[in-house]
Amino acid sequence: MGYQVLARKYRPQRFADVAGQDHVTHTLLNALNQNRIAHGYIFSGHRGIGKTTIARILAMAVNCRTEVGSPARPTPEPCGTCDSCTEIRQGGAVDVIEIDAATNRGIDEIRELREAARYSPARDRYKIYILDEAHQITDAAFNALLKTLEEPPAHIIFMMATTQPEDIPQTIRSRCQHFSFHAVKFDDILAQLKTIAAQEQVEAEEGALALLAEAGDGSMRDALSIMDQAIASAPVENGRPVLSAGQIRDLMGSVPNTVFEHIMEAVAAGQSAALMEQLNVLVNAGHNPSSLARQLVRYLRNALMAKLGGEHTELLQISADERARAARTAMLYTEEEMTRNLQIVLRTFDDLNYRQEQRFHLELGLLKLIHAQRLLPIEELLSSVAAGSGARSTAAPAAPRAPASAPRHTSTAAPVAPPASPSISPFASAAENRGSSAGPGQSAAPSPAVQQERSSPSPVPVASPEASGSPVREATPFPAVGFASATPLTEGSLAKAPEAAPGLSAAPDADSLRNAVVSALASAGHSSASQLLGSGGWTLDGSSLRIEVANLSKKMLGLTVNAAAEKIIRQELQRLGAPTRFLVVPGAGTASSAQVIAAPPAGSIQQEALAHPLVQRAKEIFKAEVRSIVDLRQK
Fold first, then answer.
1. pTM of the model
2. Residue 213: which CATH number?
3. Residues 50-80 pLDDT 10s
4. Is 124 in the same domain as 74?
5. In a domain? residue 338
6. How do residues 482-506 score in pLDDT, each as one tens digit?
7. Rounded to whole angstroms, how far apart are CA atoms 580 and 292?
8. CB–CB of 27/179 below 8 Å?
9. Cα(551)–Cα(596) distance, rounded to whole angstroms?
10. Helix (H) and strand (E) counts for the chain?
11. Domain interval for residue 199
12. CB neighbour list of residue 540: distance below 8 Å, 6 or more residues apart
């Protein structure tokens, strides 16, 4: 027998060999065990996931001559050795007819099928018709089959495989059992590829097989077809083909995701020239702009999923290395920025399908990513408008701004009565967390009153909210659903550390960075993160910053150093001219978990709450600690 491609050679012959379709195989095995065989089945789903394969296995199971429960067939699985199983596997069974419905779709062919269905099977128990691509049968042909399918002879079973079940008339679907197949998971495809590589005596790198599994995109047959092609083009060493990741990329014409990581680092750093140079290298190497945009869309999608669910989420069907890379890119942006970037690249990819100069449109789309980083959130604009209108309502003359060394929350000018109805925006805290208005030497998170003073075109001293007794409502940040730590940039990365801010040292040391970041976190109300990072070990290594903190669990570390705290840290590092890429790791700090909690002031509501017997009892029962206390009483 001649050479067989891998997709045919390793086609499953038992229900247990089918990967990723347990919900279908278990149901069919139970039906066989109870002898509840339906007269019509519809198998629908993605291409290359086992629809026709399971139809053949079911045909072998119902026509198998070996009795269930015998040593040769202890379960309803087909024995695979009898004449019926052998003929069905080889495609030569008289009573199992496979019809390509894409070419035999007319009413005449269906009439012939209906006439032949009246006769009993020649040898086997059932006469089985397997209609592949059944959705291409015409409506008239389906109507001709309708009565036979509704009241078929006892020896007839219809099995229809389709990728578009919605195109099958509802009258046909209501008379059949419908099984919806799932796309095969990345891990299942990778495990199958490893098994086949071992049986074929192919030396394959882990990264190469991961690329093949990812290229399959949920289809086992597609992955095996690409693997067949890769083996044919692979170099042979000691009589065995050798598959490498670089060879697979060259074969598929894809770009390493490291390139897209560098591209997104350049976007985060606002380096337009470096971004265009990298794109020029890719286009000159022969990569198609449309293919580059498609791969960038997939990479940004993975980075967004890593931002939402963390590095180890089930939403990522990629290898461990690619998960870590997606998590590093996710650390550079907020969830809103990641969503906006993905939308821009998706629109660019759509434009490339009907544009003449694809390269120019791809360059324009990448520049839009950089320009989008300069957009201000709507809450910050609303906060500025509200604060400015409140400041203009005061009739006092403008006073000079307090020097940077003076405390921001104290007034140094003559007392001025606050407005009758102070306008404090509920978005003020979000604007403060961004620290967009903080200049050199100033705190990145002043009080809401100072935010109002800073946003006003005519600054005037304003009494602090604590003095006036007016409650200040702080905006709640978005919940942090995952915590992914950044890692140092690799050599040759496009993203470079921003230049030092005017008036600051060009090369700040670790201690100065620690003091500035801890102060900024404390000013913004992140006392737990401030104490945790302040007691940790800081190491500055060129393009990255490593912070070793107390031995906390990953979940507790993510709650303490959440997304809002990460943003403040990054902005403060950028203001000081330090690398904005940092890594927070547990296990080597000097603080214990008990030291992370800030000691409440004497006589405060925090101290009263912590001393309450119910709170103490809850801490003992749940082995927990109080992270924050909010006073919700009416003042």
1. 0.57
2. 1.10.8.60
3. 999 999 999 999 999 998 888 888 999 999 8
4. yes
5. yes
6. 333 333 333 333 333 344 444 444 5
7. 27
8. yes
9. 11
10. 27, 11
11. 186-252
12. 509, 510, 513, 578, 579
